[in-house]
Write a structure and sequence with these properties.
single chain, 248 residues, alpha/beta, Rossmann fold, seven-stranded mixed sheet, two-stranded antiparallel ribbon, 25% strand, globular, binds S-adenosylmethionine
Amino acid sequence: MHPTVTQADEKKMAKIYSAKIARTYFTQRRKGTFVNDGIVNPALRSLVGDVTRKSVLDIGCGFGADAKYFLRNKVRKVVGIDVSESMVALAKQNVRDARATFFVSGVYSLGVQGTFDVCVANLVFSQVKDISRAFRSVARVTKKGGICVFSLTHPILSAQGGLKGRMFNYFNRKLYNEYVPTIGAAIPMYHHTTEDWSKALEENGFVIEALREPRTPKRLAKLFPDLYRMFSYRPNALIVKARKIKRG
Ligand SMILES: C[S@@+](CC[C@H](N)C(=O)[O-])C[C@H]1O[C@@H](n2cnc3c(N)ncnc32)[C@H](O)[C@@H]1O
């Protein structure tokens, strides 16, 4: 397995997720966060379902939060890949289990060996420019009959250029920068339409089995009042479960 970060947008992400940012993200996430822990993870994990004795590829694994969850839930093996060397280093420190391995790779080339029952990408693909290419690569490493479950910034939100933006032309696949408090920096995000996601999956032998637009739990109203208000009338995230029906 070799580091395979070759494309311009991946190189940019690898640079952004520096040691300082990886550490900030790790520290902030441990405090419990609105988007990841409050909204996205419960929905994503429920769509992944039972992972007992399964093999899981965690694309854009960050510091290994989901890997830890899968290991607690009796996964056979989990491989985490991430463009950021610093994130991978943190994941290695944070997750010490013989069933887990982590290495540096971007999603376009995925230098992993073998195929997986489950591929997960949690809040990663909104940072990927060419999603057709990304799913071509995911299809190559997903077993026939296996699933890919991923979460993203909801297109209704990316179409307005993030939280503080204004609605622009929905059909304009625009790049925008979003300040993410848990990361402590502005991150480049790509707006893709809902149809773009669907087509990228179709073209690569996946069928969509389930979509979720999770509502914000009431318990977060006190902790994050402004965000709670904002997301009580529109979704923050879209979670997709797709099954690979054709051999890659
Ligand atoms: C918002 S963090 C999410 C981390 C993790 N999935 C989680 O939920 O805890 C996004 C992660 O995706 C990684 N990333 C961004 N673009 C990527 C790409 N093209 N290939 C692989 N990883 C990528 C970043 O380095 C970062 O660790």
